[in-house]
Design brief:
The relative contact order is 0.08. The chain folds into 2 domains: 330 residues, no CATH class; 215 residues, Up-down Bundle (Methane Monooxygenase Hydroxylase, Chain G, domain 1). The radius of gyration is 31 Å and the shape is elongated. Helix 7 packs antiparallel against helix 8, helix 10 packs across helix 11 and helix 17 packs antiparallel against helix 18. The protein has 580 residues and is mostly helical.
């Protein structure tokens, strides 16, 4: 045998070039698509049929069904998609991934594309240095496209030749003499190959090279393709391990849907492959059968595998479409919602282990910040409970406020870490960098608001321990200030949830003006009450502390509104007239 370890290393290197080219190509396409991915995401939520086209389109853009399914799992985890809505997208991704096989079989085996690929790199390489971002992204995608096919050519050259290394053929042939059992065996081989390469596209390319070089027959290659359909589901299932129950269900659905498809195809595989052969000969009269061992039949056999891959996935969607509700119920049964751990209030809309494209990750972070703002509103209600509920319930509210303050600290740290990870992505645009900086500012101010509510809680607890309560009439006056702050929180939440550039800063400025106006008015009334001896000096100090901290909360709320809008409005704060 003339195949050495050095030759094997060249094969691994060639595979690395192919996978690297696929990644650069995919990243470039995602950058070019930009906000279109977000528009495609909106189409996911209509119905299952729309979801299929969405999944197909997203996979066509990302050039990776793994990227699409991991993205879908992260969306389900983030609450951007429901489990049921995700099923259509997953089915569409299965069809979309077959485009890579067509691209490789047509350009990689039917034509000599390497000179074109190198020329493509030469044409687009200078555009990597231009100032136009869109041109740079297109150049990156085209260079990735060129590297992909150079890697494929290297793979073809690096695999051992069967004529000079017959031992390899004899080794593989020893596993192909078991008839139908051989097909089942090579389904597992295809699955393992996808797990090793962590790319169904790379595994498909290797399968096509093996078929083209005569290592495996057409039926064996088809069995490996079926195994790769199972292997591609594993990455999403691994990603879902750190997700919530709904993310796990989406990943499990992908696995069981693909396994069900492989099972029915194995039941009819021989007549199905004969049908593929008949179609190929109908399109190319006089051509050799794809089952032939003649080397002249191999280019057509690679095309036939691509046709098999596409027709199988399309038929699988058509056949199983009506059974999707039953698969969903089965998945829900084996992955029950246990409540408690999955539903407790913590960072649940994003997860460090579930990173999708940078543009869409920002949307997930935005949803988490919206949840952060909701927690602030709960702290506001909790503080009101301290002041106005019966004494026997006040200690309970003090405990709740302590727990909620810990959650706000946790939310700030974990969202900040997630935003840093997004910003480290080389695919990110300058506009996204600005959004991330604004989000970092927002979570910092939200955490400060949580601190202020907690500080007021500790002040209340001390007054409770010292038996120095604020008189009822002073508390009733404070209710007006609390109401104004609550109105500002509602506006803040609306602005956080608003589409980019749609935040209502005028409403936010009016709300802050109202808080400042009340602070001044209530402060004057406080001094009058103090002079009249309505309450003790210590009670008055506590009242004034609440008043000043609530006004400070209003300032932080305004900072969040400005960050949500992406512009500052402070210069106009004092220009607006007070509300009548």
């Amino acid at each position: 045998m003339s195949y050495t370890f050095f030759d094997f290393l060249q094969l691994i290197g060639a595979l690395g070039i192919f996978i690297f080219g696929m990644k650069v190509f995919s990243d470039g396409l995602q950058k070019v698509a930009g906000n279109k991915l977000r528009a495609i995401l909106k189409g996911m939520t209509r119905n299952r049929l729309t979801g299929i086209f969405t999944g197909f389109g997203t996979t066509a853009i990302t050039q990776s069904s793994t990227t699409t399914t991991v993205m879908v799992v992260s969306f389900v985890n983030a609450g951007l998609l429901t489990f049921v809505e995700s099923t259509g997208v997953i089915m569409g991704a299965n069809i979309g991934t077959t485009l890579t096989a067509w691209m490789v079989s047509v350009f990689g085996f039917k034509f000599q594309i390497t000179p074109i690929a190198i020329s493509l790199i030469g044409v687009f390489f200078p555009f990597l240095f231009v100032s136009n971002l869109k041109l740079r992204n297109i150049a990156e995608a085209m260079i990735g496209f060129g590297i992909l096919f150079i890697g494929l050519e290297f793979i073809k050259d690096a695999v051992p030749d069967i004529n000079t290394n017959p031992e390899i053929f004899e080794f593989l042939d020893s596993f192909t003499n078991y008839g139908y059992l051989s097909l089942i065996l090579f389904v597992f081989v295809g699955t393992i190959l996808t797990l090793l390469t962590q790319s169904s596209s790379a595994a498909t390319a290797i399968t096509l090279v093996m078929l083209f070089n005569g290592w495996v027959s057409f039926p064996i290659a088809a069995a490996m393709i079926l195994g790769e359909n199972i292997g591609t589901t594993v990455t999403a299932n691994i990603a879902a391990l750190v997700g919530n129950v709904h993310a796990k269900r989406a990943a499990r659905f992908h696995f069981f849907f693909n396994v069900a498809g492989v099972l029915w195809m194995l039941a009819v595989i021989y007549p199905f492959l004969n049908g593929i052969d008949a179609v190929m000969q109908w399109f190319s009269p006089g051509s050799l059968s794809v089952f032939s061992d003649d080397p002249a039949a191999r280019p057509n056999a690679t095309l036939a595998i691509s046709l098999f891959h596409t027709s199988f996935n399309v038929l699988n969607v058509i056949i199983l479409f009506a059974f999707v509700p039953y698969i969903i119920r089965f998945v829900e049964r084996i992955q029950p919602d246990k409540g408690g751990a999955d539903d407790r209030f913590e960072l649940k809309y994003i997860n460090i282990g579930l990173m999708s494209s940078s543009e869409l990750s920002i949307e997930q972070a935005k949803k988490e910040i919206s949840l952060f703002a909701k927690m602030i509103e709960k702290m506001h209600y909790g503080f009101m409970g301290l002041l106005y509920k019966k004494p026997e319930r006040q200690r309970k509210f003090i405990k709740k406020m302590g727990k909620r303050e810990e959650i706000t600290d946790q939310l700030e740290v974990e969202i900040a870490e997630y935003l840093v990870q997004i910003s480290e992505n080389t695919n990110i645009s300058s506009a996204s960098i600005r959004k991330i900086r604004n989000m970092q500012s927002m979570i910092n101010d939200l955490e400060r608001i949580g601190d202020l509510y907690y500080q007021m809680t500790k002040t209340f607890e001390r007054s409770l321990d010292d038996d120095q309560p604020i008189p009822a009439d002073a508390l009733e006056v404070l209710r007006e200030m609390l109401s104004a702050v609550h109105d500002a929180i509602i506006i803040m939440r609306d602005n956080i949830n608003a589409p980019s550039g749609k935040a209502d800063l005028e409403a936010a400025v009016k709300a802050e003006y109202r808080i400042n106006e009340l602070r001044d008015k209530l402060r004057e009334e406080h001094y009058i009450r103090l002079e009249l001896g309505t309450y003790s000096v210590r009670a008055g100090i506590i009242f004034l502390d609440y008043l000043n901290r609530l006004e400070k909360i209003g300032d932080h709320i305004m900072n969040v509104n400005e960050a949500a809008a992406g512009r500052r409005f402070k210069a106009h704060r004092t220009e607006l007239p007070p509300n009548p």
